[in-house]
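Fig. S4 source data, part A: sequence.
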Amino acid sequence: MQAIPIYGGVVSLLGGSEGAAISELTLLRFYIFHVALFPLLLMLLVYLHFSSVRRVGLNPTRKAAGEGVGIKQHLVNLTILLTVLVGLLVTLGVLAPQYLPAAADPYETLPGIPPPWYLLAPFGLYELASGWVPRWVVGLGLLAATTAFVFVPFLVRRVEATWSRAVLAGLALAVWLALTWYGASVA
């Protein structure tokens, strides 16, 4: 994580470990973030939003009374702020460029990191087919198969169950379990 420019040290500090392994300390830190710090940050943001709406005066009755700033002026102020922030980020990127090390291979699994249990079947298929098919083709096929599941309810309109559907579902489950077993044995 230290190789990541600018925020790599912060990620290592938050992660609690120098290596790629996630420890108990990492889980404890992120639990505290999600239970204590993030709700406090959300309450602070809600307070800032309400106080800025009250201060700016987006209420039309206050605008008629001559109080506050109108919505047009508020949008102009936000545009100016956004332009300054983008300008600062571009300036930082130009004046202090951070160069990354060699590009990572997204199709190569890091050694020593097994996939989670729910990804063992795609991992097994990926490892099984990558011997004779290029890795990017296998990845694209897995993406296409995953995307195809979205359209299954639209393709299957009949509600009644037939024996062919039961056999097809049983066959799909058997293939899934076999790929899960193979993925667990390879990982």
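Fig. S4 source data, part B ends here. The chain has a mean pLDDT of 81.
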